[in-house]
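Hi D.,

Good news: the full-assembly prediction came through. Inputs first.
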Amino acid sequence: MPLPHGPDPVPEKFAACSVRLGADPEPFRVLDPDGHVVGPLPELDDATLLALYRWMAFGRALDGRALAIQRQGRLTVWAPATGQEAALAGMGLAMESGDWVFTAYREPLLLLMRGLALEDLLQYFRGLYWVANPYDTGAWPIQIVIADQTLHAVGAGLGFRLQGQPHVAVASVGDGATSQGDFYEAINFGGVFGAQALIYIQNNGWAISTPRARQSASQTLAQKALAFGLPGLLVDGNDPLAVYQVARHALDRARAGEGPIIVEALTYRLGAHTTADDPTRYQPPDEIAAWRGRDPIIRFRRFLERRGLWDAGREAVLQAEVLVEIDGAIARAEARPTPSFDRVIESTWAIPPPRLRAYQAARHAIDREETP
Amino acid sequence: MATIVSPIEPAIAPSLGTAPGALDRHDLTDRDLIDVYRTMLRIRRFEERVKDLFLEARLYGSVHLYIGEEAVATAACKAIGDGDVISSTHRGHGHCIAMGLETGPMMAELMGKVTGYNHGKGGSMHIASLDHGMLGANGIVGAGIPISTGAALGFWIQERPNVALCFFGDGAANQGAFHEGINFAAGLKLPVVFICENNGYAQFQSVKQDLPIEHVATRAISYGIPGVIVQGEDVLDVYGAVKEAVRRARAGDGPTLIEAKTYRFEGHFLGDPEPYRTRAEVAAARATRDPLKLFGAQLQELGVATAEDLQAIHVQIDDEMERAIEFGESSPEPPASVLLTDIFTGADEHGRAS
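Then the structure:
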């Protein structure tokens, strides 16, 4: 297998946002924080632009509902992605059928866009296990161990290459994951063997309470690509049209078998790390205020309004619609019977070890006694 | 001539390395230079005698020889002082000798004798002597990186003006421990100098196959620290680069990643049939990249020593090696009763906390 020695030149459009020796990259941007067009627009029709906005609004509303029902004890935990909707929806839109995505816990929006049913996802956050078949949608189970999905995506991307399949495996990680040894080993290995993988870093400024400045002394996280001889692109993560275009280019490149590529999206976590966290103890108020002024949903909405595609009336209808949709999924998830304990074992082991089988039998005996 | 690859602090470039065509002895006195030669020769002869003993079945275990790479350890350890520490690799005899460990107890350690630095229980890959600032050789590839980073963190917390040198190979540069250790050290600007001894082969694999970029030093960019490339067979080049990196580390400017381009004259371990490289390649390296020959010629060029002076040192070192072997072979083996000592602190013989 030929060894890729150094990245190919990137298209002119992305030259300034590409990491290289001796120069700081400028994040790729299409919309300014007020929604004015300042960069090249992607070729997306109005229906697709509206669908993209709907997904972002859906993600924001889902965070609100999920936080509320977690406080009622109806979900075990929730990791809100408030403020990161553009980074997630831009990538979700750019991926193609057959592509696989391996995420952490803050990317429900990305998984839902790839076809995972919300009620299936909610089963997981209700404290059950992953019920959806990943092969149906390419949305793989959530990884809690920081950065380990990088290994999974690179492995899958290597499989795509070896089998000659025109698909890409996307690893979605945060800024904290870039300091993990597994992140490094995975990308280095994927680079040497030309895995069809995209490493997508959502730099939201905080790894729980560790600020980006304490995460790494490197100026950007995208420049870590230079350690592997791979291309690295920097994008404004609060600009869905910029994320879409950079993601599209990166996916095309990986799909063509030119090796992995790293994309860093600059965004901000406007909510807590999870429902077990109080970010007011560490996030500076002026920093939060500055990022609220770059809210991705407001930015995109203003863009749509200027194009005559959106107004307050449509917004009100949409907000009502997504809540009905979300509440319906919650109701369906809660109405499902608790899956039998056996599924936990069956979804983990092809051949359960004897000790586990003995435990299973003992448990069945108890269940029989308790059932009147 | 040292080459700077990191764009982060190109300002340090002029102070590193020697100008082409001119020998820069830096701050080294005649006595220092002779001392450097003596240390390099001590490493060479120690390794040669270890090879002999191994082939004669007078010494057991796996042995990784440092022949060809002597200039790196010698120059680097010459650039540090009292209280400074190093971490080493599975190929650690040279680092031990460069830190001033004596060849007698080293030989005893390789022979599994009670008079060895680890009482005969460590062997070739685990020689350590905290009195010498030698934190240990290590059989795990890349494991020295977090260890030296941890030592540097200790210096930083205790506000001690010391530095840690970390030696590792090109293979270790693909380990997660490399990434985590250097990222952490760079983030806190810890006083540690990372020295990659790129000898061209990770065990039996060429760096051309496992490294997707040309230089390990380029990876410094990932951590926002300077990356420097030196010719590993040129002891003065290595010294200049490490000296400057140590100065930066002590001044609180953080770590430097130095890549020494070197070459391993022997196999990965004794008994390696070396199917991954040609004999011609090894012969060419021995002819043109022998640090001992090059430095011997440089000493004469500088007028520091004559050929006769160097010959006298060879005689002394040969004699020292005879005594080291005799010391090792005449020492007793450790009794079985000490098998479980030196493993846990504050624990009983079963490893339980007391």
